[in-house]
Write a structure and sequence with these properties.
The complex is a heterotrimer of chains A (478), B (293) and C (284).
Chain A lengths: L3 H11 L1 H8 L4 H8 L6 E7 L2 H18 L2 E7 L1 H14 L6 E5 L3 H6 L6 H7 L30 E13 H5 L1 H11 L9 H18 L16 H14 L23 H12 L13 H9 L5 E5 H9 L10 E4 L7 H6 L8 E7 L7 H12 L4 H8 L11 H9 L3 H8 L12 H17 L4 H18 L5
Parallel strand pairs in A: 1-2, 1-3
Antiparallel strand pairs in A: 3-7, 4-5, 4-6, 4-7
Chain B lengths: L3 H29 L2 E2 L10 E2 L4 H7 L2 H31 L7 H13 L2 H12 L5 H10 L9 H29 L4 H8 L4 H28 L4 H6 L11 H10 L4 H30 L5
Helix pairs in contact in B: 1-12, 3-7, 3-9, 4-7, 7-9, 9-12, 11-12
Chain C lengths: L1 H33 L23 H9 L2 H32 L5 H13 L6 H11 L1 E2 L2 E2 L4 H25 L3 H9 L4 H30 L2 H6 L7 H4 L11 H22 L3 H5 L7
Antiparallel strand pairs in C: 1-2
Helix pairs in contact in C: 1-11, 2-3, 2-11, 3-6, 3-8, 4-6, 6-8, 7-8, 8-11
Classes of the chains: A alpha/beta (478), B mainly alpha (293), C mainly alpha (284).
Chain lengths: 478, 293, 284
């Protein structure tokens, strides 16, 4: 199996200069001219260290520099540090960063605190730096998350993915597994389409692996008892698939069932109970796993199925240097509870998280025009295909039809097709300006539920009260 | 030598720096503690609240009080183990045996490693899926080792890390104290026919009290502040298991962004820590007759 | 008598061997991890010293050569050295003043510097962040994310510490000696360079080394008050605090490098570390 990811990056790096005409969409003269007044500027950016981020920093930045003479230093760091550095810079107005990564769920907070430059307006005021080959309509609806209520854009999407269900084709296809499962549970072994089936699969494979002396378990669990990744897993993926939307918060900012909210309602409790009960069938590192540990757990072959972020699905399926399960990965839409799919399809709910992020410009940036050029560069439709191949992310409609992506789609068992056809069922985070504080209030309760210190019911009862207190203290709840 | 001007000139840079980065922050956090200030709230500005509203709320804040209690518990538990183990080790270093100085040098190593690096070392050592300890616990003892699986487990894991890190300090300090003990009382005691145990209880320990108090004072003072290792190893979890006051305040400031409330919290934390430390210090000074030297 | 002594020696050697193992084993494991590829780190931990056969150098080159950790290392060196230097110089001056002159309020100064040592840094995160980013403004720039900011900040801890250490030593140099020099027409600077520094040099060396070490090892305030340009190596580790699942090897490599000055100083500092950590209350 060709190592497509590594190949893509090497190929692009080595013939980068020659292809710069292609990247600039044949408009290289325009880019050279537009960049001339800013030649020699160094743009500093901070983002999360993901495969798409690495491609942007290593390949796209170099292309941009050779074309315009503007250097881009993209700092790809850990998720918490990215937030920490970006927010500190914008709060302090220290002008360290020219562009920052805006995670989808924090954009409302940034907009509320007026951190970001209005890109639509800035481009309107500076016609000389408006790139001729950037088509804003080619962006998928993901860009809507980064617009204000007037429709002005504050962030240029650079990655978008779904959190999908991954399963091990080899395990699910093994003859003895099939017969063993049929015998034990009375129906055919298959990737999970319901939570009861998920449970049966998990239980079965934990036993199966143990019997065969293999280091594998029935399911992953993103259950870090000391990092928000687990809270996010619950609020963004598990919860919605059981029908818990919007963190269970009502229009007037109440989350407890007693006041009309649903954070401690039946669906929420069902979700948390199911999820924590899966720990029994998960590898030991589950309680220390954020999304990146879950990815490497699956890549190490230690789980038969699991919820895994799309950005990792691509490299897990194809990169031999980092994954032991190349060629054995199956991709599917995660299961949902009764009625959830219908609600999502009609727009009254969603089945999971439409994850991703954009690059935005802080007001304190000292090089706004040059940064606008950079952001438009990465917004070009022409650069999207290689970027998608390297990072498993798609932000433009046209990318779905690119031959490279169609090929990659085969390797990744149809992940891109899934994204194209069912993306509408997923949604971003709720529009909470207090996102960070609210989540921090819920964290300890999720951790306690995972560690078994509290029952799921107690945990959610406590969590909704803590969240309500935050919303009240901050002045949102009347 | 009465030119006070020279003296002030010599000491003024020191005072200037300490005022600027020591006193001013203190005054500032004291000031902010009297305001309601929440950048994530609907009202983003500072609002003065009636004197002590934040403090009144803090007195009933179970999470803050819990973190104080947890910090104190941690400080005393680690002190107990470090003192006991350190004392025994110091005694053993009094007589000679092969490779003694090599062993002593290695023993000193943890003291110079940055706390955050100590956290990293143990994270790599104890994390499931990578570390040897969980793996071999399963292999040889069929025990599911997972330090993030319960609040207690994480707490005790940090105690182990702290003991690994700081016992050498206790050992070496007590060794220094023991080596400096005068000979005479021992000789008189031997002449009087006392046995080893009696000598230990009635002569060694009393003479060691000054050094013991120094050790206790410094260890307690430092372990009440712990943040780095905890952050690296557990992030303050699971639940509230390792959420010591330092970590709690960090989260209040940078996650919840409740600036006013966390300032009042910082002042209380400061107050409690300093009261405990000054109390110990005065014990140290009176008991041990140790002056500023 | 003799056998019990021999037994005791054997017993001690065994106990201390075990202790050495306990001390070194986690560090050994970290070094191992830093030399392995991601795939090699899956599955059963291999305790053999594979670094004698093959080292996956990418774990080191990625952060230090391709990445920004080389800059972080430089920052650490600059900040720790500058701080040690400034602290030593200022402490010599201040201790001399406290020792030779009667300064009004010396007691208060002492009380206050002691309190600085006792205070938990976490209590000052917010005020320092706000001061460094908004209030301490010099024209267009602030102290946030600057090396000088951290160098000054570490004085809060290191200065009192250095003054404590040096006070005993300088008190031990008889006043008569400098009085004699001054009578002979020497100025204060000469007194320092020709008398105080030479006589107190071992103590000064210890003070500098320990100040360097504390500044190098500091994490909490450095992460809060730095972002890109003044990041130090220990704070660089915070880029690995979480989401390390795919980066264990690199994290270990960074941690190994962070430890290097400690190892170098261990040899130099061993004799004085007790004196240092107890502020001279206990002399080794």
């Amino acid at each position: 199996m060709v190592n497509i990811v590594k190949g893509a990056i090497t190929l692009l790096l080595s013939v980068g200069i020659a292809f710069s005409a292609v990247y600039a969409g044949g408009h290289s003269a325009w880019w050279k001219k537009a960049g001339a007044p800013y030649k020699g500027t160094v743009l500093q950016g901070v983002a999360e260290n993901t495969p798409p981020g690495q491609f942007a920093g290593e390949v796209l930045a170099k292309e941009f520099e050779s074309l315009t003479g503007i250097k881009v230093r993209l700092e790809n760091t850990s998720w918490d540090q990215m937030y920490d550095k970006a927010i500190k810079d914008m709060e302090a107005n220290s002008g360290i960063y020219d562009f920052v990564y805006i995670e989808q769920d924090i954009v409302y907070s940034y907009l509320d605190r007026d951190f970001l430059v209005n890109i639509t307006k800035a481009l309107a005021e500076n016609p000389s730096i408006v790139a001729p080959n950037v088509n804003m309509d080619d962006f998928t609806t993901f860009i809507d998350y980064f617009k204000d209520d007037k429709g002005d854009v504050f962030g240029i999407p650079m990655e978008a993915f779904l959190k999908v269900y991954l399963y091990r084709k080899d395990l699910f296809g093994a003859a003895d597994a099939k017969s063993g499962f049929q015998k034990k549970y009375g129906y055919a072994l298959a990737p999970a389409t319901s939570f009861a089936q998920w449970r049966d699969n998990a239980e079965f494979f934990t036993g199966y692996c143990a019997e065969k002396g293999m280091e594998c378990w029935g399911t992953t669990v993103q259950g870090h008892t000391g990092h928000p990744a687990s809270t996010y897993e619950f609020l963004e993926s598990i919860g919605p698939s059981f029908g818990l939307y919007n963190w269970g918060v009502t229009e007037d900012f109440h989350s407890c069932a007693a006041d009309g909210g649903s954070l401690n309602g039946a669906r929420a409790k069902g979700a948390l109970s199911f999820w924590t009960s899966m720990l029994e069938f998960a590898p030991p590192e589950a309680l220390q796993s954020t999304w990146s540990e879950v990815a490497s757990t699956f890549a190490a072959g230690r789980a038969a199925q699991g919820w895994v972020y799309g950005e990792n699905a691509a490299w897990i399926a194809s990169n031999k240097e980092k994954s032991l399960v190349v060629g054995k990965v199956g991709v599917m839409q995660p299961p949902t509870g009764p009625g959830v799919l219908t609600q999502a399809a009609s727009g009254n709910g969603y089945i999971g998280y439409f994850d991703g992020g954009a690059y935005g410009i802080p007001h304190s940036s000292k090089n706004k025009e040059a940064t606008l050029l950079w952001l438009q560069f990465v917004a070009q439709s022409e650069v999207q295909a290689d970027w998608a191949a390297a990072g498993g992310r798609i932000t433009h409609y046209s990318t779905f039809n690119d031959p490279k992506i169609k090929e990659m789609d085969q390797v990744a068992d149809g992940y891109f097709t899934l994204m194209q056809n069912t993306g509408y069922l997923y949604a971003g985070a709720p529009m909470f300006p207090f996102h960070g504080a609210g989540r921090a209030a819920i964290d300890p309760f999720i951790y306690a539920a995972l560690a078994g210190e509290k029952s799921p019911s107690e945990a959610l009862d406590g969590a909704c009260k803590a969240l309500d207190k935050v919303m009240k203290d901050l002045g949102y709840q009347k | 030598m009465n030119s006070n001007r020279t003296a002030w000139l010599l000491i003024s840079p020191t005072i200037l720096i300490l005022v600027l980065v020591g006193l001013v922050p203190f005054l500032y956090v004291l000031y902010v503690g009297f305001f309601n200030w929440m950048p994530l709230g609907k009202i983003k500005d500072m609002q003065f609240i009636s004197l002590g509203d934040n403090y009144r709320e803090l007195m009933f804040d179970e999470y803050f009080l819990g973190s104080i209690w947890r910090s104190i518990k941690f400080a005393f538990v680690t002190l107990f183990f470090e003192l006991s183990i350190g004392f025994i080790l110091a005694l053993s270093l009094l007589s000679s045996f092969p490779l003694k100085s090599f062993f002593r040098s290695v023993h000193t190593l943890p003291l110079v490693i940055a706390p955050i690096v100590v956290g990293a070392i143990f994270k790599l050592f104890l994390v499931n899926g990578l570390g040897p300890i969980p793996y071999f616990a399963k292999e040889f003892f069929d025990y599911k080792f997972n330090y993030m699986s319960s609040e207690n487990f994480a707490f005790w894991m940090l105690v182990v890390v702290d003991v690994w890190h700081w016992t050498p300090f206790v050992t070496l300090t007590l060794l220094a104290g023991l080596s400096a003990l005068p000979e005479d009382p021992y000789e008189s005691a031997k002449i009087d026919g006392a046995n080893n145990f009696q000598i230990f209880i009635h002569i060694t320990i009393p003479m060691l009290v000054p050094v013991l108090v120094v050790v206790i004072f410094i260890r307690l003072m430092d372990s009440l502040k712990i943040v780095d290792e905890v952050w690296m190893l557990t992030g303050g979890g699971p639940g509230y298991g390792t959420r010591f006051t330092g970590i709690h305040i960090w989260k209040e400031v940078f996650e919840k962004r409740s600036y006013g409330y966390s300032s009042a919290m910082s002042i209380l934390y400061l107050y409690i820590t300093i009261v405990i430390c000054w109390f110990l210090y005065s014990v140290m000074v009176s008991r041990g007759k140790v002056d500023e030297n | 008598m003799r056998t019990s002594k021999i037994l005791y020696k054997v017993f001690s050697t065994i106990i201390w061997s075990i202790l050495t193992l306990i001390t070194l084993f986690p560090i050994y494991w970290m070094i191992l991890v830093s030399t392995r590829t991601p795939v090699q780190l899956f599955g059963k931990p291999n305790l053999a010293p594979t670094f004698f056969e093959k080292i996956y150098w990418k774990n080191y080159t990625k952060p230090f050569v391709d990445g920004v950790f080389g800059d972080y290392l430089l920052n650490s060196i600059i900040i720790a050295t500058s701080n040690a230097f400034i602290v030593t110089v200022l402490a010599i001056m201040a201790t001399y003043a406290l020792s030779r002159y009667k300064i009004a309020g010396a007691e208060t100064i002492f009380f206050w510097t002691m309190t600085n040592r006792m205070a938990p840094p976490a209590a000052f995160l917010l005020p320092l962040f706000l001061l460094f980013t908004t209030i301490f403004k010099f024209g267009d720039s602030t102290l946030f994310d600057t090396k000088i900011g951290l160098i000054l900040l570490y004085c809060v801890f290191n200065l009192p510490f250095a003054i404590w250490l040096l006070k005993g030593i300088i008190d031990g140099i008889p006043k008569e000696l400098d009085e004699a020099m001054i009578v002979d027409g020497a100025n204060l600077f000469t007194v320092f360079t020709k008398l105080i520094i030479p006589l107190a040099s071992p103590g000064i060396a210890v003070t500098s080394l320990l100040s360097f070490l504390f500044a190098w090892n500091e994490y909490l305030l450095a992460t809060t008050l730095s972002s890109v340009y003044s990041r130090t190596i220990p704070t660089g580790l915070s880029e690995f605090v979480t989401t390390t699942g795919t980066e264990w090897g690199t994290m270990a490599a960074v941690a190994v490098v962070s430890m290097l000055p400690a190892l170098i100083f261990l040899v130099l500092v061993q004799k004085y570390i007790v004196t240092g950590l107890t502020f001279g209350a206990v002399k080794a």
